[in-house]
Write a structure and sequence with these properties.
This protein is α+β, with helices and mostly antiparallel strands. It folds into two domains: about 230 residues, Collagenase (Catalytic Domain), CATH 3.40.390; about 100 residues, Immunoglobulin-like (Sandwich). About 20% of the residues lie in helices and about 25% in strands. The strands form six sheets. It has a seven-stranded mixed sheet, with helices on one face. It has a five-stranded mixed sheet with strand order 15-21-20-17-18. It is elongated, with a radius of gyration of 24 Å.
Length: about 375
């Protein structure tokens, strides 16, 4: 299948000329740790045509798996118009259809509102839609250009069916969340023997995406991500199986958490805030501690420590490290912006004790269930 026209990014699954595969392979021009756009915190969802009445079990299957993403990011999916996508309106200039809904999900084996037009992967109706008809398989658009007229005019944003293997349905819905293909990123670790084998044997493995521009690499390469393709027949590559049932990987979940943060936007860190005089206090950005590529997701970090009206130290690194030579209570402000320009901030305290006082405190809490550090 050819790439979509214009700048509308489309993460699709296209049938390859490998007839022995029962599940099609994706071929988007665009990974768990790599993203292209995000949705708003509240996502309006509808199902195209008569899916709600004709395929209620398929609708429930897709809806239940979509809601899994709410467990890992600050995002909420809501059905509107009783779950049925309304007919489009026409733009003021008459050039585009305008469809409501952020996710407009087509279900295989259903009909559009006219009761005649089949909803299939080969039909992306809508006046002005920049997409070319796709292959008859499973796909989903990424949200990078979702509000542009040539994207909003497309009847579908996602085409799936009930009963897909767990990794495959989470893969397609992952595209809808902004995730793109893990196997295409160029930073795959060739020191890993299996990765090196896949790189050698699979034409699309490790030869596509570079960080920067529209693509954000959130985590290191993740061999367990649902955003892989399966290896083609005849390959000894054992990475990426859409028929698997393990679901979202650790890095898949971390990526969603970073892309869809809490609305309070707290700059979280990990480390002990009670220490002895002369002991180095080390505080780590929580995303970095969890394994994210901190240089990509944390921008303009700043730590400022004060005591009273006196500035003690300021550091402009994602992590903080400093030796305090005086006991007392210090205030610490931590702030940064993420790759999307959202601001995060946190004000906390650091307590510095004489060494013997800290030893007594630690001895007093040994064996208890209390966690101070």
């Amino acid at each position: 299948m050819s790439a979509p026209t214009s700048n509308v990014r489309c993460a699709r699954h296209a049938l390859m000329i490998l007839s022995s595969l029962s599940v099609s392979l994706a071929c988007a021009p665009a990974c768990a740790g790599v993203i292209d756009g995000t949705l708003d915190p509240v996502v309006r969802v509808c199902f195209v045509g008569n899916a709600v009445t004709a395929k209620p079990l398929d609708v429930k299957f897709v809806w239940d798996h979509l809601k899994v993403y709410e467990n890992y990011g600050h995002i909420k999916f809501v059905l509107f118009n009783h779950g049925q996508c309304p007919a489009p309106k026409r733009s003021a200039d008459g050039k585009f259809d305008v469809h409501e809904g952020d996710l407009r999900i087509g279900i295989a084996g259903t009909l559009d509102l006219d009761g005649k037009t089949p909803i299939s992967g080969t039909a992306i109706a809508g006046k002005g839609c920049a997409e070319k008809p796709g292959e008859g398989s499973w796909w989903s658009n990424v949200p990078g250009n979702r509000n542009k007229p040539q994207f909003r005019s497309c009847r579908l944003t996602t085409f799936v069916k009930g009963g897909l293997p767990l990794n495959l349905i989470m893969h397609e819905l992952g595209h809808a969340m902004g995730l793109i293909h893990e196997h295409e990123r160029r930073d795959v670790p060739l020191s890993d023997p299996m990765v090196a084998r896949c790189y050698k044997e699979v034409p699309y493995f490790g030869k596509g995406l570079s960080p920067g521009g529209e693509f954000l690499f959130v985590t290191p390469y993740d061999r367990y991500s649902v955003m892989h393709y399966p290896a083609p027949p005849g390959s000894t590559c054992q990475l990426g199986a859409e028929k698997d049932k393990h679901g979202l990987s650790y890095f898949d979940k971390l990526t969603i958490r970073i892309l869809y943060p809490q609305s309070s936007r707290i700059a979280q860190f990990i480390g002990a805030t009670v220490a002895a005089v002369g002991e180095r206090v080390v505080l780590r950005n929580e995303w970095a501690f969890a394994g994210a590529l901190v240089e990509n997701v944390v921008k303009n970090p700043a730590w400022t420590v004060t005591r009273g009206n006196r500035k003690v130290v300021q550091q402009k690194t994602p992590d903080f490290g400093f030796v305090f030579n005086e006991d007392g209570l210090y205030s610490i402000d931590y702030a940064f912006t993420d790759a999307k320009g959202r601001s995060f901030a946190n004000t906390s305290e650091i307590r510095i004790l004489p060494p013997e006082a800290l030893l007594r405190l630690r001895a007093a809490t040994t064996g208890s269930n209390m966690i101070l550090f």
